[in-house]
Write a structure and sequence with these properties.
InterPro entries: AP_endonuc_1 (IPR004808), AP_endonuclease_F1_BS (IPR020847), AP_endonuclease_F1_CS (IPR020848), Endo/exonu/phosph_ase_sf (IPR036691), Endo/exonuclease/phosphatase (IPR005135), ExoIII-like (IPR037493). Pfam families: Exo_endo_phos. Belongs to the DNA repair enzymes AP/ExoA family. With about 260 residues, the chain is α+β, with helices and mostly antiparallel strands. It has one domain: Deoxyribonuclease I, Chain A, CATH 3.60.10. The chain is built from five helices and twelve strands. The strands form two sheets. Strands 3-4-2-1-12-11 form a six-stranded mixed β-sheet. Strands 5-6-7-8-10-9 form a six-stranded mixed β-sheet. A hairpin with a 7-residue loop joins strand 3 and strand 4. The protein is globular, with a radius of gyration of 17 Å. The model has no long low-confidence stretch (mean pLDDT about 95).
Length: about 260
């Protein structure tokens, strides 16, 4: 079973890129972030023609998350619990093929310090609380998406350039580590414990050409899935396609749960 994450950075503007990559990789489940469209404008018909069911939570111009699947999707939650006033479209959850799949677009937090960073930390705290509840269900679960957290120095090309960036603040890394400590496995880093792996390349300063990247897109596996992880990687070449998102599609393969 292949599961993927892709911050598409505008699903309608990049639908042809998405469809091309779906045909190439043929993942079973895909979590999309930054779809940047209202619910009524989501390209569900084109995706269905490509063989994918979809659920989504849109937002005009900003944010937005979606889950695609080759098999039918049972939506279990939209919106991260813990703050009824939070109207950002950043979390959607579903039951697919014996798995709970949470699709995440965590706040960036910049400029920091400031209100946006405080929102990021509060969101991470809410995610940690919700993930603890998910673990209590005893159902295999994967939290997939753009976490906007660079966990360690190995996960970026130049740590000194990011000391003042919310993605790499000590508080962000500490919160991510606290989340992992509940029992979650960072799938990509587990597969490649010592290798340089990047999932994001800025559009500026020829970042892609220089391999000056960041690892922002993560798969967190519940303990009952840690021994089912088979493979994974980054489809880096997609970042080089004309008009592509600044994120690369990332994927893992796990043994079927049933």
């Amino acid at each position: 079973m292949i599961l993927s994450t892709y911050n598409i950075n505008g699903v309608n503007g990049r639908i042809e890129i998405l469809l091309k990559w779906l045909k190439e990789r043929s993942p079973d489940v895909v979590c999309l972030q930054e779809i940047k469209c209202q619910d009524k404008d989501f390209p569900a018909k084109k995706l269905k023609e490509a063989g994918y069911f979809a659920i989504w939570q849109g937002q005009k111009s900003w944010n937005g998350v979606a889950i695609l699947s080759k098999t039918e999707i049972k939506e279990t939650k939209r919106g991260l619990p813990g703050d009824p006033a939070d109207d950002h479209s950043r979390y959607i959850e579903a039951f697919i093929g014996g798995l709970i799949i949470g699709c995440i677009y965590l706040p960036n937090g910049n400029p920091a310090p400031g209100p946006k960073f405080e929102y990021k930390l509060k969101w991470l705290k809410r995610l940690t609380a919700h993930s603890k509840k998910l673990l209590s269900f005893g159902i295999p679960t994967i939290l997939i998406g753009d976490y906007n957290v660079i966990p360690t120095d190995l996960d970026l090309y130049n740590p000194d350039r990011f000391r003042d960036n919310a993605l790499f603040f000590p508080e962000s890394k500490k919160a991510y580590k606290k989340l992992l400590a509940l029992g979650w496995t960072d799938a990509i880093r587990t597969l490649y414990p010592d290798e340089i792996i990047y999932t994001f390349y800025d559009y500026l300063r020829n970042a892609f050409g220089r391999n000056a990247g960041l690892r922002l897109d993560h798969f967190l596996l519940s303990p009952d899935l840690s021994d089912k992880l088979i493979d994974g990687g980054v489809d880096k070449h997609v970042r080089g396609w004309q008009g592509a998102s600044d994120h690369c599609p990332v994927w893992i393969e796990i043994q079927p749960t049933k």
